[in-house]
């Protein structure tokens, strides 16, 4: 059967001149023939969705452990929400939606079990061996740890997707990175950059910047949703929080006496809408001022082109400050955080001392290594665990002492 012409299947809608163009991608580490039915960024998106690491996000904590209820966010639901918002931003700015979505789908792949609690203690365990960084680990997953293809390790993603994963929050070197107090670049990123240069001193594409901003929007809106549903704070507690209080007053005026669950939903949807509308307006202003004629003009800009206005930046900081004290450090959450760290530390110490306690594949990987190499294998093993698998391993190797059992 003959292959249909590419143009029959691929979307050729006109994009902005500064958008990423899959036809002019800077390529893959391992060259591959083009697909007759999908653009290069579509292929990356699909590879991420079908990856093992992506599926594991369903059972990794966002803020709560799954035992707290079925309706709270996991890493997977958060990632899907980020991808949706990222596409909306890309569409509004005439950017490539597939690349924006691919970057969003990849952005949390490197997170450990038990959310930031797990990452914090794994970083401490790995301090003598180069530390642990979830962004660097995500790069490690998509370039090495996923073993699915006959010809290479990893997913063999395009340059543009990889640079978005690594640099969606901005350059890792240069003046902008120094102004933002970027810490030392993780060695995994430097190691890969030596093989496949990612221009660490330059900005990633506008599509990747959409994914970064979408992450902030999703976090702010949906952590408010989860915190309210968990009873960690009330609607009245939120009224002094600038933008949120204004939206609650708007809902009260439009729908007096509305039941609480609907008020929460109305608040979340309005919050996302305001963030997105502000981001589109501010980003359009920045793009007009910069007048980029190519994607290279975006990468060499002095600041992000996709951003909130100063007023909205202040509003979102106020929300983050509220959530930090009233949710992430809540008296109900802190014991969960500490127990999670106890599990991760205990498992690291167990598997480092006895690599044979890991599954066969990982035991074989650890055996020929020196201490640093063995620590990295153990770190990879634990970082890939879902919350429930980590709990099962804790019960098997550490006894009941987790508080989760």
From TrEMBL:
Entries under SMART domains matching the protein: HDc
Boundaries of every HD domain copy: 75-220
PROSITE patterns attached to this UniProt entry: HD
Keywords attached to this entry: Hydrolase
SUPFAM superfamilies per record: HD-domain/PDEase-like
Family per similarity comment: Belongs to the dGTPase family. Type 2 subfamily.
HAMAP family: dGTPase_type2
Protein's name in the database: Deoxyguanosinetriphosphate triphosphohydrolase-like protein
């Amino acid at each position: 059967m003959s292959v249909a012409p590419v143009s029959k299947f691929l979307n050729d809608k006109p994009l902005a001149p500064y958008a990423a163009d899959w036809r002019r991608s800077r390529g893959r580490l391992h060259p591959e023939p083009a697909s007759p039915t999908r653009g290069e960024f579509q292929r990356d998106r699909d590879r991420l969705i079908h990856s093992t690491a992506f599926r594991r996000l369903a059972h990794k904590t966002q803020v709560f452990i799954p035992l707290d209820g079925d309706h709270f966010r996991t890493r997977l639901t958060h990632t899907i929400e980020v991808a949706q918002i990222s596409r909306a931003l890309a569409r509004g700015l005439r950017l490539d939606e597939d690349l924006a979505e691919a970057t969003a789908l990849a952005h949390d792949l490197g997170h450990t079990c038990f959310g930031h609690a797990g990452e914090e203690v794994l970083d401490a365990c790995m301090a003598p061996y180069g530390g642990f960084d979830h962004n660097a680990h995500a790069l490690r997953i998509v370039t090495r740890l996923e073993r699915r293809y006959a010809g290479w390790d990893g997913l063999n993603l395009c340059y543009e997707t990889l640079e978005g994963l690594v640099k969606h929050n901005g350059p890792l070197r240069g003046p902008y990175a120094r102004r933002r107090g970027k810490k030392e670049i993780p060695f995994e990123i430097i190691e890969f950059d030596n093989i496949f240069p990612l221009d660490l001193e330059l900005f990633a594409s506008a599509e990747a910047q959409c994914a970064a901003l979408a992450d902030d929007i999703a976090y702010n809106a949906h952590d408010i949703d989860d915190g309210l549903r968990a009873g960690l704070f009330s609607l009245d507690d939120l009224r002094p929080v600038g933008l949120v209080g204004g939206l609650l007053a708007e809902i009260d005026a439009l729908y007096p006496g509305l039941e609480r669950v609907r008020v929460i939903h109305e608040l979340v949807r309005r919050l996302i809408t305001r963030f997105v509308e502000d981001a589109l307006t501010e980003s359009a202003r920045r793009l007009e001022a910069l007048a980029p004629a190519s994607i290279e003009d975006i990468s060499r800009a002095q600041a992000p082109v996709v951003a909130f206005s100063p007023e909205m930046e202040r509003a979102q900081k106020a929300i983050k400050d509220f959530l930090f004290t009233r949710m992430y450090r809540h008296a109900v959450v802190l014991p969960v955080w500490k127990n999670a760290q106890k599990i991760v530390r205990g498992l690291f110490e167990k598997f480092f001392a006895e690599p044979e306690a890991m599954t066969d594949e990982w035991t074989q990987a650890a055996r020929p290594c020196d201490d640093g190499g063995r620590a990295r294998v153990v770190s990879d093993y634990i970082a890939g665990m879902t919350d429930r698998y980590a709990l099962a391993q804790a019960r098997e190797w550490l006894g009941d002492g987790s508080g989760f059992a």
